[in-house]
Amino acid sequence: MRLSDMLTEYIMEMLSDTGDAEIRRNELANHFGCVPSQINYVLTSRFTPEQGYIVESRRGGGGYIRITRVNADKSQTMMHIVNSVGDSLDRMSVEVMIKNLLGLNMINEDTARLLAAALSDRALAPVTPSGRDIVRASIFKNMILTLSGR
Q: Using CA atoms, how far apart are residues 73 and 51, in angstroms rounded to an integer?
């Protein structure tokens, strides 16, 4: 398992009880034997507003990072995701979004597998490599709109 995945899993466990977690970046970096910038990477890539999180930080000696899971209904969350997707969507980003939808119980395992298959590079092979991310974004948005009942 990659370090970023382990950090994400650790933070997700902290969030599972109350929906929020307070961490000290340096302490977490020491615990995992990594540099603090690795913590920043995980926070900025896996705990974004588009993924249903608010991240606040306070600098200084008693500084901390607070992560809060935003509780919104399924339709609001799905629409927020659609609105956060731009004109293109790379394979890694769509995989993270699918994983987040699954983690938020917005979709089930079967739906996650179908989304992943339909949005994979293999499924989009007939599209030129430069056009795949554009087509992927369009398909993803339409699928999410359909799942949200709109």
A: 13
Q: What is the mean pLDDT of the chain?
A: 86
Separation between Cα atoms, residue 36 and residue 26, nearest integer Å = 6
- What's the sign of the alpha-carbon dihedral 75, 5, 89, 91? negative
Side chain identity, residue 26: N
pTM (predicted TM-score): 0.59
| CA–CA distances in Å: residue 138 to residues 31, 106, 145 | 41, 20, 11
Token digits of residue 119 = 């949005």
* Residue type for position 72: A
Residues contacting residue 46 through CB under 8 Å, at least 6 positions apart: 4, 8, 96
